[in-house]
Amino acid sequence: MSTGGLLAAELRKTVTLPAAWAGIAVAVLGSIAITVLNALTTRSAIDAGTPERVANTSAFETAFAAMPLGTVGAVVLGVVVISSEYAANSTDAGGGRQITATLAAIPRRVSLLAAKATVLVLLVTAVAALTLPATAGIANAVIGGAATETVTPAQALVRGLGGTLYWTLTGLIAAAVTLLTRSGLIAPIVLIANSSVVSVSLLLTNLTPLAHWLPDLAGRRLFTGVDTVEGGLAAGPGALVMTAWTVLLLTVAAVVFRRRDA
Amino acid sequence: MLLIDQLVKRHGTRTVLDHVGFEARPGRVTAFLGANGAGKSSTLRILLGLDRPDGGTALVDGRPYRSLRDPLRTVGSMLDGSGAHRARTARDHLAWLARSNGIARRRVGEVLDQVGLASSAGVRVGRFSLGMGQRLGLAAALLGEPRALVLDEPVNGLDPEGIRWMRGLLRDQAAAGGTVLLSSHLMAEVADVADDLVVIAGGRIVRTGTLAELTAGYDRLEDAFFALTGGDEGAHR
């Protein structure tokens, strides 16, 4: 089979899955909604002469505060591209799983996983290319000239790319964990709770500085800028560590997937 | 031609397949008969590269399934129903399958017509009945116009008219020189369609031969089957 055909098939498979659109909607529409709320709050604080009520009056920072929702969307996408293969159909319809049809059509399992990872990277990048300019534009339109922008266009571009990389790597980690566990539950519980409810990794840094080398904390400077918790890895080395985690997990998942019964 | 040779499969300490071997030849319908749990699906899953054997080989035209290029054009298969995700429509399911094996897009409409699902092409698979799921699974098997068909319990859930239609389809495939291997635990359906029979019980092949050879001395295939497999032993496993 051709690589192009394989990629086209996996892309088509993903975009005809309603759950994938839920992930995309969380990232795009969720981020836009949060940005509108945040920007209106900032604007009203400025207009009322009390800008100290908000953490930052920069339009870019206001837009960037919605980044965690993109992480959630990337995790959902990473999980569903794999978990949809293992979800059982209703017993009325035979109770089969899609993985049977997938592996009958595409028996080369490592190529299959590579195609799925590529589709995931493409989709998450497309979501970022849509979401980041949209939220920045909205925040700019609402806050506009009322506040001075503290982030230069060059900084904004670097942090936008860094955030996109963080989303992509998190999505790939979610896919690898889902493939290893064949469950659509474990990866989202760990990754979404950890990035939005309470950061277990961050708590762990109180016990050992080694926790700064966990994938999520290593990559944290990719989009959180400098005004967060002290310590840990800088953006560049952090990105390398997070990428290494992703490659390691995908490799382990590929080895297990190739060997085990479908 | 499908060749299964000395297959062994263990789950923990339990031996599921104990040196299973047989062949399915072109131009013939081969029925793989056994009670539930006798090892039919395990054998077919290894043949299709889904599970790994602990010993032995399973070959399609002399090659392992996993090494086939565009396998859907060589072997059409159906295991546990349609294999479609419940949230996807029948048409979308067949469309990605076609794309993955370089099969012309027009085949999607053709096979939907052929299995009688044209009017349900846009319905989500989760809303399908068992019989519709079987028809969709068969549509997927036929998609690449393969020479060989491997079907696990294909008449499951089909109504009498559907069973009759399935028989005609399998006979046509064999008449055109194709290879057909189907598993079943329903003797009556098989007696009318099979040329060759392979009987498995408790993970071992107990008999292979033509329909006439196996039923010689018995009134019905069902009687022959129970005599060969030692009654309903398989059902108690």
UniProtKB/TrEMBL annotation, chain A:
Looking at the record's lineage, which domain of life comes first?
Answer: Bacteria
Q: Where are the transmembrane segments?
A: 20-40, 117-143, 163-181, 188-214, 234-257
**Keyword tags:** Membrane, Transmembrane, Transmembrane helix
Q: What name goes with this protein?
A: ABC transporter permease
User: What species was this sequence derived from?
Assistant: Occultella gossypii
Automatic annotation (TrEMBL), chain B:
Q: Which domain of life is it from?
A: Bacteria
Its keywords, alphabetically, are: ATP-binding, Nucleotide-binding, Transport
Q: Which InterPro entries match?
A: AAA+_ATPase (IPR003593), ABC_transporter-like_ATP-bd (IPR003439), P-loop_NTPase (IPR027417)
Q: Can you name one GO molecular function term for this protein?
A: ATP binding
The protein's matches in Pfam families, at most eight in alphabetical order, are given as: ABC_tran
Which residue numbers delimit the ABC transporter domain? 2-227
- KW Protein biosynthesis (keyword) present: no
The record's similarity note reads: Belongs to the ABC transporter superfamily.
Under the heading PANTHER family, the entry gives:
ABC TRANSPORTER, ATP-BINDING PROTEIN
Question: What protein name does the entry list?
Answer: ATP-binding cassette domain-containing protein
Organism of derivation? Occultella gossypii
